[in-house]
Structure formats: C-alpha cells, structure tokens
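[step 3/7] inverse_fold.run input=structure_tokens len=151
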C-alpha cells in the first residue's frame, strides 16, 4: 500500500500539485484521467492524497476529459469517491463538469467511515459519527474533516 501511495504522490508532484515528495522518482507517463481514476481507489487510505487530489481538481477541472474519466473510473476506480470529491469541489468551483460527474455517480452501498483509519479508534469513530458533515452523509460516509471547504 505504501509503495502505491508513494507512486501516486510522485504522479501528483509531476502535475505541479501542492504535494511535496522527499525524492523525485522516475515514473512512466500516464494521463490525468488515469491518475484520477487510480487515486479514487486510495483516497480512503490517505487524507493527504485526498486533499492533494481535491485541491488540484478544484483548480484544473477544465483540463479533464470527463467522458474518459468516467469510463476509466467505472472500470478501474471508485465512482462513488469520484462523485463525492466532485461534489466537494463544486462548492469551490461551480463547474458543469463537476455536476456531470456527480450525476454519473452513486452513493456508497452502505454507511461507513470515509477514512479507514477512523474505524480503528472508538473515540475517533464516535466523534466522526456525531459530527459527520452533510456532504459525506449524502454519499453514505461518515467524515468530519474538510470543514474549511463546506459552506
């Protein structure tokens, strides 16, 4: 898992995102739609990855081929996470592309913690459930992070 996260951080670093890496490692060339699709599989394991992706997404949505992104994410990524991140990003950038991504996504099948690490702590779980943000509830997740992004 750590190797995959490190690789994703390397790719985001090459896109001039707000990520710092200790060492620039060579990576193969991949398209942004493929990177986003792959990132949706790992957001729940890393808050850092989620915030880097979200920040880049807010400011660069117009660079993305939405049809290609949806196709890749439906086959190789997590369409629910894509919809959730697009919904959060839409609060800061009211792009029609975000709206299309939201409409093309479905909420999670069951209610669970967005970040896997939260479920490992009884106290964190209790607080997260009690203070879960409406935007996460909409997508069937518990999360109380990202308050600075919400209206």
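[step 3/7] decode complete -> sequence:
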């Amino acid at each position: 898992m750590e190797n995959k996260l490190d690789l994703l951080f390397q790719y985001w670093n090459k896109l001039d995102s707000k990520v710092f890496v200790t060492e620039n490692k060579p990576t193969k060339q991949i398209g942004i739609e493929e990177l986003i699709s792959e990132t949706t599989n790992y957001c729940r394991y890393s808050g850092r990855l989620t915030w880097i992706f979200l920040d880049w997404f807010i400011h660069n949505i117009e660079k993305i081929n939405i049809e290609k992104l949806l196709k890749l994410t439906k086959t190789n990524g997590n369409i629910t996470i894509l919809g959730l991140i697009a919904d959060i990003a839409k609060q800061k950038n009211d792009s029609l592309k975000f709206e299309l991504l939201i409409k093309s996504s479905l909420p999670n099948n069951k209610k669970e913690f967005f970040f896997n690490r939260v479920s490992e702590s009884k106290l964190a779980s209790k607080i997260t459930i009690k203070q879960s943000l409406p935007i996460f509830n909409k997508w069937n997740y518990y999360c109380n992070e990202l308050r600075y992004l919400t209206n």
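[step 4/7] annotate
The chain has a mean pLDDT of 89.
Helices lie at 2-14, 32-40, 47-60, 66-76, 79-90, 96-103, 122-130, 134-138.
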